[in-house]
Amino acid sequence: MDLSIIIVNWNSVGYLRDCLRSVELEMRDSLLDYEVVVIDAASYDGCDRFLHAEHPRVRFVQCNRNLGFGRANNLAFESSRGDAVLFLNPDTEVVGPAIATLHRRLRELPDAGVVGCRLLNSDGSLQTSCVQSFPTLINQALDFEWLRQRWPASRLWGTAALYAGNAAPQPVEALAGACVMLRREVFERIGRFSDEYFMYAEDIDLCHKARAAGLVNYYVPEVSVIHHGGGCSQEAPSNFSVVLMRESICRYLAKTRGRFYGELYRASMLGVALLRLAALKAAALRRRGRAGAPWSGAQRKWLAVLQWSVRRETTVRQFEPAG
Q1: Do residues 8 and 73 make contact, with C-beta atoms less than 8 angstroms apart?
Q2: CA angle at residue 113 from 162 to 74, to 5 degrees?
Q3: Does residue 233 register a pLDDT over 50?
Q4: From the centroid of its chain, how far is CA 51?
Q5: How far is CA 120 from CA 72, 117, 129, 225, 278, in A?
Q6: What is the rounded distance in angstroms from the CA atom of residue 286 to the CA atom of residue 176?
């Protein structure tokens, strides 16, 4: 079999319906021999009944507990047979011959590790996080939207390939995991998704392992996929993404650069959170207390980061299932 498409579902059956519709629309004219494997991470949102009724050819795997993104993908991989594997988020829709083109490019690049594509927001605008640099203390501490807009192609963010104006595949450090493809043997050789993350940073870690194995990660700008974003985390508790994203980056940095570096990252996030909260307070005072909902949302976010920085283990236990 040429290709396995693996999708992890968690309370995303509405998104999954549109995702599978877009996949089938593209692949009906494709010459690729492919399969789709959907794994439900113990959300029990009715996706099994939906698949049985509307997509009976899709292989369905039911988890009895939420394993997290990486572990669930690894488990679904065990049920797959394709020579190449596409890991696709349920809150995505493929545009045109996206999958076939990505597969063709993968075949043409003998040194390819992870290949990914251009991700678009729901309104069609570019999702700049589809290409990234590996996290460091500096690029995480300076991750301000104003700086990103002012210097979008800076090496800090690793996004220069997005603005190169070249249709050919571009070497990059890391790619967002909403839509990534690998050869089956490469995925197995580099150790699959690492299981120390519950959610977030698994894609960064996978790209890091590919580079460490002497492979090249490629961004394929001619391929576009709509990524609505947040489809799997909208039902999660408040601050779920905020806390687990920092926790996963901390684990990644400790794993790749040493435990002390990971602790430095946590300390730096404490400082960043205090600075952000002070800036938000000053802005609110200038507006005579009429900060409004956006300011309140930002304040909640950075209070959560502050709490994680000070009480890491206690805070993480609120969001990450045990085991």
Answers
A1: yes
A2: 110
A3: no
A4: 24
A5: 25, 10, 10, 6, 33
A6: 38
Q: Name the one residue in this structure whose structure tokens are 């809150």.
A: 91
What is the structure's pLDDT at 289? 52
HSE (side-chain half, CA atoms, 13 Å) at 82: 22
d(CA 182, CA 188): 10
Please report the pLDDT score of residue 230 as a whole number. 57
DSSP state, 228? -
For residue 203, what is the enclosing H or E element?
helix 202-212
What average pLDDT does the segment 297-306 reach? 90
b/e string for 2-13 if b means 16 or more Cβ within 10 A? bbbbbbbbbbbb
Q: What is the dihedral of CA 228, 232, 234, 239, to 10 degrees?
A: -110
Distance CA 124, CA 56 (A): 31
Distance, in Å, from the CA atom of 323 to the CA atom of 318, rounded to the nearest integer, reads 13
> Which pLDDT value is given to residue 146?
84
C-alpha to C-alpha distances, 292 to 17, 79, 150, 165, 283, nearest whole angstrom: 36, 49, 26, 39, 11
**CB-CB contact of 15 with 228 (8 Å):** yes
Local structure of 70: helix, strand or coil:
helix
Query: What is the CB neighbour count within 10 angstroms for residue 309?
Result: 21
Cα angle 44, 45, 46 (rounded to 5 degrees) comes to 95
Does position 174 have pLDDT exceeding 60, yes or no? yes
pLDDT at 118 over 90: yes
Its pTM stands at 0.92
In the predicted structure, residue 150 carries a pLDDT above the cut 50 = yes
Mean pLDDT, rounded, of the chain: 92
Q: How far apart are CA 93 and CA 293, in angstroms?
A: 31
Report the alpha-carbon distance of residue 239 to residue 270 in Å, rounded.
Answer: 16
State residue 6's pLDDT score.
Answer: 98
Q: Evaluate if residue 96 carries a pLDDT over 90.
A: yes
Type of residue at 177: G
Q: How far apart are CA 219 and CA 148, in angstroms?
A: 19
